[in-house]
Each structure stands twice: as C-alpha cells, then as structure tokens.
Q: What sequence folds into this?
C-alpha cells in the first residue's frame, strides 16, 4: 500500500491535542447557557414589545362644529372701488374700476327719434306700437265689434299721447285713424248698396251692385292685411296705411 505522502498528496494538518476535544463538564441538574435568539428585527425573543405611539391629534374641521364656540372674526381690509359716473349708454366710456362694463349695444340708442331694434337694456322691453294694431282685431266681434274698436282706440290714443317715445304716439294715432277710416269706408259702401237696391224699379238689384260688393270685400281684406303688417313692423317704424284718412293730427 502506497503512503499518501508518496502518492503526491499534501501532508495532513497536525491533529489538535486531546484536551481541545474535551466536552466541558457541568454539574448534574444544570444546563449550558444558550445564546439569545433574535426575532429578525434586531430584538431578542421574549422581549416585551414597546408601548404603542400616541395617536396624532385630529385635524381641525373645515366646517363649523355644532355646539362649538365661535371663532374670532379675522380683520379684513376693504378698499372701496373708485366709481366714475358716465353717460347712460354712452359708447366708448371708460369702464369703472370694480364694476363690469356693459357693452354699448346693451342700452337703447335712438336713431332719428326711434329706438334701434335689438339695443335694449337687460330685462327692458323696447317701446313698440304693436298693441295698438293688435287691438284692431276687435273688429271681428259680432255686431258691435266696430263700436268696441273705436272706443278702445280712443282710450289707447289718449294714454299714448303722454308717452315720450314717438314710435308709441304715432302708431297709436295711425291705428285709430285707420280704424275710423275703415268704419267710414264700409259705411259708405253699405249706403251705396242700399241706395242701388232702393233705386231699382222692380226690386231686382242691377248688375252694377257687384261694384260696391267687390269694394266691400276688398276693403275688408285690405284691413286684415294692414292690421297684420302693423303688428309686425310697428316695433321698428311707424305704420301708416295708404288708405288711412288723417283724422287725428299730432
């Protein structure tokens, strides 16, 4: 058998003395002291946990608490805005500090004595003469419609004379002029029809009666068209019917 040294292996390390392998002797009934075990977070097992941290104080509420004492008011510094009076509806006026400036088109601007349509103040109705022409539809009340229309037109005319707006005064005047003119035209045509019938020798109306009959129907259609047109354009201009007699002036 070849020796390990002869086979080329390195020599074995020297063996320790016999006393280094000796087990320490402990008296009967005693145990060896053990090293404390760690819990992994740096604390030894069996160590009582530290007391919990006190809770953080609650944040103050953003709204007042019912029953809580009111907080002292904070002093505020108030700077009044500088107000510069300007003309009513004057275009190009410098805006006042602290107040929103309204556009120049938001106020009534007169042009030739009549308000320009669409340029009215907020929540303000532009003056118009529509109601005077709309009241002429009272003509279609049976039997006494013409009388009711004339009475209402006279009342409205007297109240409109106090208006500072020319568009109101003039439309009321021409509406009454047309109402009276329409009654006069129809009364004359009816009187002409009655006269033609009464002048016929045998009581048979002649063919010429068709002329006043056509006029009666034509004037009625013209009256309807005039009232509708007056209700449409009298908020911008004064409506003057071509067949209206100028019975009331100024």
A:
């Amino acid at each position: 058998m070849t020796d390990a040294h002869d086979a080329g292996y390195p020599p074995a390390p020297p063996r320790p003395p016999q006393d280094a392998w000796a087990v320490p002797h402990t008296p009967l009934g005693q145990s060896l002291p053990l090293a404390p075990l760690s819990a992994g977070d740096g604390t030894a097992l069996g160590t009582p946990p530290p007391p919990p941290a006190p809770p953080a104080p609650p944040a103050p509420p953003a709204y007042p608490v019912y029953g809580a004492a009111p907080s002292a008011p904070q002093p505020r510094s108030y700077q009044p805005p500088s107000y510069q009076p300007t003309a009513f509806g004057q275009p190009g006026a410098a805006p006042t500090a602290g107040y929103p400036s309204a556009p120049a088109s938001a106020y009534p601007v007169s042009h030739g004595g009549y308000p320009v349509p669409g340029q009215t103040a907020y929540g303000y109705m532009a003056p118009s003469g529509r109601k005077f022409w709309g009241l002429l539809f009272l003509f279609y009340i049976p039997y006494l419609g013409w009388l009711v229309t004339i009475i209402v037109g006279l009342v409205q005319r007297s109240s409109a004379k106090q208006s500072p707006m020319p568009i109101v005064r003039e439309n009321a005047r021409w509406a009454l002029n047309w109402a009276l003119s329409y009654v006069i035209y129809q009364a004359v045509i009816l009187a002409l029809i009655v006269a033609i019938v009464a002048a016929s020798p045998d009581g048979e109306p002649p063919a010429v009666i068709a002329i006043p009959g056509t006029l009666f129907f034509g004037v009625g259609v013209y009256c309807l068209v005039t009232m509708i047109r007056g209700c449409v354009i009298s908020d911008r201009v004064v409506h003057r019917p071509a067949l209206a007699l100028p019975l009331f002036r100024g």
Summary: The radius of gyration is 56 Å. The chain is about 30% helix and 0% strand. The first strand starts at residue 110 and ends at 111. Residues 166-199 form the longest helix (34 residues).
